Amino acid sequence: MNVVSFFAGAGGLDLGFQNAGFDVIWANEYDKEIWETYEKNHPKTILDRRSIIDISTDEVPDCDGIIGGPPCQSWSEAGAMKGIKDKRGQLFFDFIRMLEAKQPKFFLAENVSGMLLNRHSEALFNIKEMFKNAGIGYELSFELLNAANYNVPQDRKRVFFVGIRKDLGFKFKFQKPSFEKVTLTDAISDLKCNALAAQEGNKTNGRKCEFPNHEYMTGGFSTIFMSRNRVRNWDEQSYTIQAGGRHAPIHPQAPKMKFIEQNKRIFVPGKEHLYRRLSVRECARIQTFPDDFIFYYTKVAAGYKMIGNAVPVNLAYFLARSIREQIMMNETVELKSLAV
Question: Is the whole model's pTM more than 0.85, yes or no?
């Protein structure tokens, strides 16, 4: 089955779908810092570099599925149905525009868990209604998932919308995972001794890294960062990998930060040298990107951004496989009923 991807980023979601047997034939990403990484790691996919706003529906290939993480930042406007003034928020409506025009068998959209806050309830209701009523309509399934349960060594909660076109006659069911817990030891213990600090200005070491992208951002830590413990032990799963490198979790070689008072912690005295941020490659491992997936950037911040914004590959694979299996099962049932 053919899939097109919007807001593709580095392509964690896309890679998961490819691993599940889908062909990602076309993708769209507007951020120029990501283009080289996407194109070199997805050589069979056509990458459209324009903003989705500037793409007509006729320019998007016909497909079986549409996937992506449309931004929905302006919840208050969306909830009041006054139109989203924030440019990022407007992009959500362009995702709906593509869905209505192409009418694929299914779609998958991912977003942050913050949309579940009570103050966004009206916005969320309206967004669900827009998904349900796109074109001839979709049977919508909606779920909050933690990547930690899907063969991913990280606590990462995100919401997923999966729609099945109504004429297919079934509704997608989120399958319960049965994976054992994956720890930081499992994910990154082999990388602990050869990470490089970024060069001056947090520029990349390039090919000086013994292992691709195994370099970490340097510099001070904000008071917000120091307000909480940022260290997970080797036998635990990572905190959420964020898009900002300065907020990357601390490597598990360090002891947990010492509590001083509310909203204030420090690095354990005498152990300060152990407190480094996770490297770009370690974050990629935690997001379950394979080691042959190389990230291209001049400043390491761009590497952290690409990885932190991605859907973990293993979670994407699990969802893609579930979608594929349920569509194929439904088609098999239909064929049998026609043969009777």
Answer: yes
